[in-house]
Specification:
The protein is α/β, with parallel strands linked by helices. Helix content is 45%, strand content 15%.
Protein backbone atom coordinates (compact mmCIF):
# COMPACT_ATOMS: atom_id res chain seq x y z
CA UNK A 1 0.00 0.00 0.00
CA UNK A 2 1.13 3.53 -0.70
CA UNK A 3 2.61 5.70 2.02
CA UNK A 4 -0.01 8.36 1.29
CA UNK A 5 -2.78 6.16 2.64
CA UNK A 6 -3.42 8.49 5.57
CA UNK A 7 -3.66 11.64 3.45
CA UNK A 8 -6.47 14.13 3.95
CA UNK A 9 -9.25 14.44 1.37
CA UNK A 10 -12.75 15.86 0.89
CA UNK A 11 -15.52 14.19 2.87
CA UNK A 12 -19.29 14.19 3.15
CA UNK A 13 -19.25 14.40 6.95
CA UNK A 14 -16.08 14.93 8.90
CA UNK A 15 -15.16 15.78 12.45
CA UNK A 16 -11.52 16.84 12.35
CA UNK A 17 -9.19 16.04 15.21
CA UNK A 18 -7.47 19.39 15.43
CA UNK A 19 -4.70 18.48 17.86
CA UNK A 20 -2.36 15.54 18.18
CA UNK A 21 -4.09 12.60 19.80
CA UNK A 22 -2.84 12.07 23.30
CA UNK A 23 -2.20 8.35 23.82
CA UNK A 24 -3.26 8.51 27.46
CA UNK A 25 -6.56 10.15 26.52
CA UNK A 26 -7.00 7.54 23.80
CA UNK A 27 -6.72 4.79 26.42
CA UNK A 28 -10.20 5.85 27.55
CA UNK A 29 -11.49 4.95 24.10
CA UNK A 30 -10.04 1.46 24.51
CA UNK A 31 -12.17 0.80 27.57
CA UNK A 32 -15.44 2.22 26.32
CA UNK A 33 -15.29 1.18 22.67
CA UNK A 34 -16.13 4.68 21.45
CA UNK A 35 -14.11 4.27 18.24
CA UNK A 36 -15.42 2.16 15.39
CA UNK A 37 -14.63 1.55 11.75
CA UNK A 38 -16.91 1.16 8.76
CA UNK A 39 -16.57 0.11 5.14
CA UNK A 40 -19.09 -0.10 2.33
CA UNK A 41 -19.06 -1.93 -0.97
CA UNK A 42 -21.16 -0.49 -3.75
CA UNK A 43 -22.66 -0.97 -7.18
CA UNK A 44 -19.93 1.18 -8.70
CA UNK A 45 -18.16 4.51 -8.46
CA UNK A 46 -20.79 6.58 -10.22
CA UNK A 47 -22.71 9.56 -8.83
CA UNK A 48 -25.88 7.43 -8.73
CA UNK A 49 -24.21 4.29 -7.34
CA UNK A 50 -25.68 2.62 -4.29
CA UNK A 51 -24.41 0.53 -1.37
CA UNK A 52 -24.53 -3.27 -1.59
CA UNK A 53 -22.78 -4.20 1.68
CA UNK A 54 -21.76 -2.50 4.91
CA UNK A 55 -19.40 -3.79 7.57
CA UNK A 56 -18.32 -2.38 10.92
CA UNK A 57 -15.89 -3.17 13.73
CA UNK A 58 -15.46 -1.57 17.16
CA UNK A 59 -11.96 -0.91 18.51
CA UNK A 60 -10.85 -3.11 21.41
CA UNK A 61 -14.17 -4.96 21.44
CA UNK A 62 -15.47 -8.11 19.78
CA UNK A 63 -18.28 -6.14 18.20
CA UNK A 64 -18.45 -6.37 14.45
CA UNK A 65 -20.86 -7.26 11.71
CA UNK A 66 -21.80 -6.99 8.08
CA UNK A 67 -25.06 -6.81 6.15
CA UNK A 68 -25.86 -7.15 2.48
CA UNK A 69 -28.12 -4.34 1.31
CA UNK A 70 -31.01 -5.07 -1.03
CA UNK A 71 -31.47 -2.49 -3.77
CA UNK A 72 -34.01 0.13 -2.69
CA UNK A 73 -36.71 1.52 -4.95
CA UNK A 74 -35.20 4.40 -6.88
CA UNK A 75 -31.68 2.95 -6.94
CA UNK A 76 -31.04 2.63 -10.64
CA UNK A 77 -29.89 -0.65 -12.13
CA UNK A 78 -27.95 1.53 -14.60
CA UNK A 79 -25.50 2.24 -11.75
CA UNK A 80 -24.40 -1.41 -11.64
CA UNK A 81 -20.76 -1.69 -12.74
CA UNK A 82 -19.45 -5.15 -13.68
CA UNK A 83 -15.97 -3.96 -12.62
CA UNK A 84 -17.24 -3.30 -9.09
CA UNK A 85 -18.88 -6.73 -9.04
CA UNK A 86 -15.60 -8.33 -10.07
CA UNK A 87 -13.86 -6.59 -7.13
CA UNK A 88 -16.30 -7.46 -4.34
CA UNK A 89 -17.68 -10.63 -5.94
CA UNK A 90 -21.31 -9.86 -5.09
CA UNK A 91 -23.78 -10.37 -7.94
CA UNK A 92 -27.05 -8.48 -8.23
CA UNK A 93 -28.97 -11.74 -7.98
CA UNK A 94 -27.10 -12.77 -4.80
CA UNK A 95 -27.70 -9.38 -3.21
CA UNK A 96 -31.38 -9.38 -4.20
CA UNK A 97 -31.80 -12.87 -2.70
CA UNK A 98 -29.77 -12.31 0.49
CA UNK A 99 -29.78 -8.57 1.13
CA UNK A 100 -31.84 -6.79 3.73
CA UNK A 101 -34.00 -3.72 3.07
CA UNK A 102 -32.53 -0.30 3.83
CA UNK A 103 -34.66 0.38 6.97
CA UNK A 104 -33.47 -2.86 8.60
CA UNK A 105 -29.83 -2.15 7.71
CA UNK A 106 -30.08 1.37 9.14
CA UNK A 107 -31.52 0.00 12.38
CA UNK A 108 -28.64 -2.48 12.69
CA UNK A 109 -26.05 0.22 12.03
CA UNK A 110 -27.59 2.60 14.55
CA UNK A 111 -27.85 -0.15 17.17
CA UNK A 112 -24.18 -1.09 16.72
CA UNK A 113 -22.67 2.37 16.23
CA UNK A 114 -24.86 4.87 18.12
CA UNK A 115 -22.76 7.54 19.78
CA UNK A 116 -19.46 6.13 18.52
CA UNK A 117 -16.87 8.03 16.49
CA UNK A 118 -16.94 6.04 13.25
CA UNK A 119 -13.99 6.16 10.85
CA UNK A 120 -13.81 5.32 7.15
CA UNK A 121 -10.73 5.38 4.94
CA UNK A 122 -12.78 6.64 1.98
CA UNK A 123 -15.34 8.85 3.72
CA UNK A 124 -16.27 10.76 0.58
CA UNK A 125 -17.62 7.57 -1.02
CA UNK A 126 -18.65 5.81 2.18
CA UNK A 127 -20.40 8.96 3.38
CA UNK A 128 -22.26 9.24 0.08
CA UNK A 129 -23.40 5.61 0.24
CA UNK A 130 -24.40 5.98 3.89
CA UNK A 131 -26.41 9.05 2.90
CA UNK A 132 -28.18 7.05 0.18
CA UNK A 133 -28.77 4.15 2.60
CA UNK A 134 -30.24 6.29 5.39
CA UNK A 135 -32.28 8.30 2.89
CA UNK A 136 -33.80 5.05 1.58
CA UNK A 137 -34.20 3.81 5.16
CA UNK A 138 -36.16 6.91 6.16
CA UNK A 139 -34.03 7.71 9.22
CA UNK A 140 -30.84 9.46 10.32
CA UNK A 141 -27.56 7.90 11.44
CA UNK A 142 -26.93 7.87 15.19
CA UNK A 143 -23.19 8.27 14.65
CA UNK A 144 -20.74 10.67 13.00
CA UNK A 145 -18.55 9.59 10.09
CA UNK A 146 -14.92 10.71 10.35
CA UNK A 147 -11.77 10.64 8.25
CA UNK A 148 -9.57 7.66 9.18
CA UNK A 149 -6.53 9.71 8.22
CA UNK A 150 -7.18 12.26 10.98
CA UNK A 151 -7.19 9.45 13.51
CA UNK A 152 -4.08 7.73 12.21
CA UNK A 153 -1.71 10.50 11.16
CA UNK A 154 -0.73 11.40 14.76
CA UNK A 155 -0.27 7.72 15.65
CA UNK A 156 1.77 6.53 12.68
CA UNK A 157 5.08 8.21 13.45
CA UNK A 158 6.79 7.11 10.24
CA UNK A 159 5.84 3.46 10.73
CA UNK A 160 3.34 3.16 7.86
CA UNK A 161 5.05 0.25 6.10
CA UNK A 162 5.36 -1.80 9.28
CA UNK A 163 1.75 -1.02 10.25
CA UNK A 164 0.41 -1.98 6.82
CA UNK A 165 2.35 -5.25 6.82
CA UNK A 166 1.21 -6.17 10.34
CA UNK A 167 -2.42 -5.20 9.65
CA UNK A 168 -2.42 -7.18 6.41
CA UNK A 169 -1.23 -10.24 8.35
CA UNK A 170 -3.84 -9.75 11.10
CA UNK A 171 -6.82 -8.73 8.96
CA UNK A 172 -6.23 -8.76 5.19
CA UNK A 173 -8.17 -6.39 2.93
CA UNK A 174 -10.24 -8.11 0.26
CA UNK A 175 -12.84 -5.63 -1.04
CA UNK A 176 -15.55 -6.96 1.25
CA UNK A 177 -17.07 -4.74 3.91
CA UNK A 178 -16.34 -6.67 7.11
CA UNK A 179 -12.76 -7.72 6.33
CA UNK A 180 -11.95 -4.17 5.24
CA UNK A 181 -13.48 -2.67 8.41
CA UNK A 182 -11.48 -5.20 10.46
CA UNK A 183 -8.36 -4.11 8.55
CA UNK A 184 -8.91 -0.50 9.64
CA UNK A 185 -9.43 -1.69 13.21
CA UNK A 186 -6.17 -3.66 12.99
CA UNK A 187 -4.25 -0.63 11.72
CA UNK A 188 -5.55 1.46 14.62
CA UNK A 189 -4.97 -1.16 17.34
CA UNK A 190 -1.52 -2.04 16.00
CA UNK A 191 -0.52 1.63 15.98
CA UNK A 192 -1.25 1.69 19.72
CA UNK A 193 0.40 -1.67 20.40
CA UNK A 194 3.54 -0.71 18.52
CA UNK A 195 3.52 2.70 20.30
Amino acid sequence: MAAGRFSKGQYVQRQDLTSKIDRDADAGHEADGSIAFIDLEASGLFPNSWPVEVGWAVAHKDIDGAVLIRRAPGWSDDAWDPKAESLHGLSRDFIDANGEPAPAVCQKLNAALAGRQVYADAPAWDGYWLYRLFQAGGCKPAFVLNDFGTLMRPLVGGREAALFDAAEARAPRCHRALPDALHLKALYELSLEMG
